[in-house]
Design brief:
The structure holds three protein chains of three kinds.
Chain A: E1 3-14, E2 17-28, E3 32-36, H1 43-51, E4 58-63, E5 66-67, H2 73-79, E6 81-83, H3 96-104, H4 111-125, H5 140-152, E7 158-162, H6 170-185, E8 189-193, H7 197-203, E9 206-211, E10 214-219, H8 221-226, H9 228-235
Parallel strand pairs in A: 3-8, 3-9, 6-7, 7-8
Antiparallel strand pairs in A: 1-2, 1-4, 4-5, 9-10
Chain B: H1 3-34, H2 41-59, H3 67-90, H4 96-119, E1 135-138, E2 141-144, H5 145-166, H6 168-178, H7 190-215, H8 222-237, H9 242-262, H10 268-282
Antiparallel strand pairs in B: 1-2
Helix pairs in contact in B: 1-5, 1-7, 1-8, 1-9, 2-3, 2-4, 2-7, 2-8, 3-4, 3-7, 5-6, 5-7, 6-7, 8-9, 8-10, 9-10
Chain C: H1 4-25, H2 33-58, H3 66-84, H4 88-110, H5 115-135, E1 145-146, H6 167-188, H7 191-201, H8 203-208, H9 214-239, E2 241-242, H10 244-247, H11 252-255, H12 258-263, H13 270-290, H14 296-311, H15 334-339
Antiparallel strand pairs in C: 1-2
Classes of the chains: A alpha/beta, B mainly alpha, C mainly alpha.
Chain lengths: ~240, ~290, ~350
């Protein structure tokens, strides 16, 4: 299977602190890839490099063979990289439908088609009933869902989910997992950063483990959790590796 | 157009520039603190000038003696404006930026109307004072004493502001400017700092006003003209930079005088505006802007 | 497709049409010239405020140089008339075109300036042109230009001159305001309307959704400037005389956005409500209290601005149920510049 995203020896420091050091891995088209690691491992930093918020200090990121590292977030979005944010960034003055329409407008110029796509996306993500609710009055779980819907409306090839399931109730988390599975059936590749291991490990095809800015190991979830280095990396951390 | 004439005009321009710088310093201080452009700044200058005029008229006291009292008066006024208006403007939940702009605009109009109501719209001037009418001859260059004194006082005031910047209060000001959300965590009373910042900014303008009143006419609209120059000076120097205000003021004063001399007096402001816009194209945050 | 959005927009159109009809018949029973003049000025400024609103409210660029576009429109139309004999109904489009062009020229370098730097830069630009106009003899300098009523033509729509009965000017102003409102309505429902609001709410999220706003800012500036220019042309014909002090002066750049700001920026009805409240109030206070030159009218006006801005920052229109943006003390500018 071809690699959709290639992360090629990416390094990034912020003010002397190395957030990512020589990170390399491929993301296979159509897979759900987990990006895990203790706090401070450099996960969100890597996300920011992939989605264009920051440019890596060295190394390259390629989407379908085309270099995307160093491009602006808008350009990355147009090339098909969409993301959600760790702290939800909804457009609070707008309704749910309007929020998703902003995403739809990434590819559509006219309002009616954008509205249609937004409505479809709301149906798909289960938010159709809340279409006219102001975004700021949604529940936290709904807000996460809105972020996903908004990102999906841009018709991405790659979707980056930043701790989408963290802090949800078990029921909400399961619904979130189902949504991610549905996203995959649409042919969208997913990379997800997550702390909630019980939910993540059954979901992902492979996992990349980061620790202190470096790749620790890459592999199937079952193997990764038995990896002694991974267990050691997590020992000082609240979250036990399964 | 001899060298002496050019030098004469240049010196005059630089001295005026120091006054612009002082007015701008007050503005920069206020903006640097809380992201508010005080569009009533010119009116504060106007009030200071009127205060000087009125006291002189009533008591015959020379304006130089009124430097401290008027500065204190303006300080109090600045604090009052903060507590009565700006504190509220800062805490509105909608359109905060626009509210700040237009509240200070409303204040400017209000103050202008109040001055008109109290003093009428006639031009006033302080007839006789210690310095007025005297000129110093510095090697062929004739420097009017009032303007020279104004320049010196401005420099001293800048010096005072720099010194204040080194004190605990000054550092608290700086900290509040850097991160006004976080300072509460280290025990800085943000409200008090803002109020004092307003007071200090107004006091600086007050000092400029007293010196200006010695040789400039006083009217309800006099503030508007200086205000525009002050905004340009602050923007040119960079919002939040005291040093920038000084440099920019000198530059603007010089350019204004030179434009009047070399091109056309009625276009003297176009020269400074053009410089300002040109600089902004290359340095969008002004010469020394930190914000 | 029937959504709350489409339903709301249909309602807005309906209300707009009703309002237009009401305003069309409003001056008919009024014979008093003072009141008629007041209505015309109010309607004209409602249109100007709405035109400003497109750039300043929806797009979030607080431009304080709109007097420039107003003046340019007035001068271009008038000069075409007095120097080339071109009727103002055609000249006003030239005025609008040049107004739009000026707005583009100002916007191009200024849009990357953040918030306050941008506001002051626009003030300065306006001031430069005011000073230049005062010294430019070819356009009349400080003396200005008189627009004579040509008796050989008489009352005419083509030449936009009406001597005894000034009512047609009301319809010209009303047409202008209606167009400005309609343009705002169209923009609100378009891609621009959505992405501008998104950028104001959260520029980082907007960027992640491929929102690029610099080109649309330029377009907003052009539209806003063009409409303002046309308003200026109409004003010139109505007043019959223009000079820098009446159409290019700096304070006008505050007066134009003021109804929009106090009525509710970025809303469809804000500028209208703001104009309806502010203009009559300021005119009446000026007539009854300002005549003596004692400044009482200014004090009241200034106090009014302060009170409304503080008490109702989301705008007066919210008092009649107009939808306002959710509470978020954003000032547009800094983040817009980075997102551009």
């Amino acid at each position: 299977m071809p690699a959709l995203l290639e992360v090629d020896r990416v390094s990034k420091s912020f003010g002397g602190v190395a957030a990512n050091v020589d990170i390399s891995f491929d993301v296979i088209e159509g897979e759900i890839l987990g990006l895990i690691g203790p706090n401070g491992a450099g996960k969100t930093s890597l996300f920011n490099s992939i989605s264009g918020e920051v440019a890596p200090d060295s190394g390259e990121i390629r989407l379908a063979g085309r270099r995307t590292s160093g491009l602006s977030p808008e350009q990355c979005a147009l090339l098909g990289i969409a993301r959600t944010f760790q702290v939800v960034r909804s457009f609070d003055s707008m309704t749910v439908l309007e929020n998703v329409m902003v995403g739809a407008f990434a590819r559509l110029a006219r309002t009616r088609p954008a509205m249609r796509r937004a409505l479809e996306t709301l149906e798909f993500t289960g938010l159709a009933a809340r279409a006219d609710v102001a975004a700021h009055s949604l529940t936290p779980a709904e807000k996460r869902r809105l972020e996903v819907a908004r990102a999906l409306a841009t018709e991405p090839r790659l979707l980056l989910l930043d701790e989408m399931l963290t802090g949800l109730t078990p029921v909400e988390a399961q619904a979130g997992v189902q949504l991610i599975r549905d996203v995959r059936t649409r042919g969208i590749t997913v990379i997800m950063v997550e702390h909630v291991m019980e939910v993540l490990l059954p979901l992902v095809d492979r996992a990349v483990v980061l620790d202190l800015g470096r790749v620790l190991t890459i592999g199937a979830p079952a193997d990764v959790v038995r990896n002694p280095d991974v267990i050691r990396a997590y020992l000082g951390d609240r979250y036990a590796a399964a | 157009m001899t060298a002496t004439v050019i030098l004469q005009v240049a010196v005059g321009g630089l001295l005026m520039g120091l006054i612009y710088a002082l007015v701008a310093a007050g503005l920069s201080l206020i903006f640097g603190l809380m992201d508010v452009v005080n569009f009533a700044h010119g009116e504060l200058l106007m009030l200071a000038m009127y205060a000087t005029f009125v006291v002189w008229l009533a008591t015959g006291l020379d304006p130089l003696l009124l430097l401290v009292p008027v500065a204190l008066l303006l300080f109090a006024l600045g604090v009052a404006i903060y507590h009565l208006l700006m504190a509220r403007a800062l805490s509105v939940r909608f359109n905060r930026g626009m509210v700040q702009i237009f509240v200070t605009f409303g204040l400017a109009i209000l103050l202008r109307g109040a001055a008109q109501f109290t003093f009428g719209s006639d031009f006033q001037s302080i007839g006789t004072s210690l310095l007025a009418g005297h000129t110093l001859n510095l090697g062929g260059v004739f420097v009017p004493l009032p303007q020279l004194a104004a320049g010196i006082v401005s420099l001293l005031a800048f010096g005072a502001l720099f010194v204040i910047g080194r004190t605990e209060f000054g550092r608290a000001l700086e900290a509040t400017r850097e991160d006004r959300e976080a300072v509460a965590l280290i025990g800085i009373d943000r409200d008090r700092i803002f109020a004092l910042g307003w007071g200090l900014g107004a006091a600086a303008v007050g000092i400029a006003g007293v010196m200006l009143a010695i040789f400039y006419y006083v009217s309800p609209n006099v503030g508007a003209n200086f205000a525009l120059i002050a905004y340009v000076t602050v923007a040119l120097g960079g919002f939040g930079s005291l040093f920038g205000a000084l440099v920019a003021g000198l530059l603007i004063g010089l350019v204004e005088a030179m434009t009047a001399l070399l091109i056309e007096p009625s276009l003297k402001q176009v020269g400074m505006f053009a410089i300002y816009l040109a600089v902004l194209m290359f340095r969008p945050r002004g010469l020394f802007g930190t914000m | 497709m029937d959504t709350s959005i489409t339903r709301r927009r249909r309602l807005e159109l309906l209300i707009g049409a009703v309002l237009l009809a009401v305003l069309a018949v409003l001056p008919l029973p009024i014979q008093d010239t003072y009141t008629r003049n007041l209505i015309i000025i109010t309607v004209l400024f409602a249109g100007l405020a709405q035109a400003w609103n497109i750039l300043g409210g929806y797009c979030g660029q607080i431009s304080l140089s709109h007097a420039l576009y107003f003046g340019v429109g007035a001068y271009v139309s008038t000069l075409l008339l007095t120097r080339a004999g071109i009727p103002p109904t055609i000249g006003m489009f030239a005025g609008g075109a040049l107004g739009g062009l000026m707005a583009l020229l100002v916007g191009w370098p200024c849009f990357r300036l953040s918030g306050h730097y941008y506001a002051i830069a626009t003030v300065v630009v306006g001031e430069i042109f005011f000073l230049l106009a005062l010294n430019w003899d070819w356009i009349g300098g400080a003396t200005g230009i008189n627009i004579p009523y040509r008796r050989s033509i008489g009352d005419s729509w083509l030449w936009l001159q009406f001597r005894i009965d000034k009512l047609p000017y009301h319809y010209a102003a009303l047409a202008f305001a209606a167009v400005a409102w309609l343009v705002a309505w169209l923009i609100e429902g378009s891609r621009w309307g959505f992405v501008w609001r998104a950028v104001k709410d959260d520029p980082i999220a907007a960027r992640s959704l491929a929102v690029r706003i610099f080109p649309s800012k330029m377009a907003a500036a052009a539209i806003s400037g063009a409409l303002t220019g046309m308003g200026g042309a109409i004003y010139a014909q109505y007043v019959g005389y223009i000079d820098p002090d009446s159409v290019l002066y700096g304070h006008l750049s505050i007066l134009i956005p003021l109804p929009a700001v106090l009525g509710g920026v970025g809303t469809l009805w804000g500028p209208l409500v703001g104009a309806a409240v502010l203009i009559p109030l300021s005119e009446l206070t000026r007539s009854y209290l300002g005549g003596s030159g004692r400044g009482v009218d200014l004090m009241i006006y200034g106090a009014l601005i302060i009170v409304v801005a503080l008490a109702r920052p989301q705008g007066l229109a919210s008092l009649i149920g107009v939808r306002v943006r959710a509470p978020r003390g954003l000032d547009s500018g800094a983040d817009d510049a980075r997102a551009a």
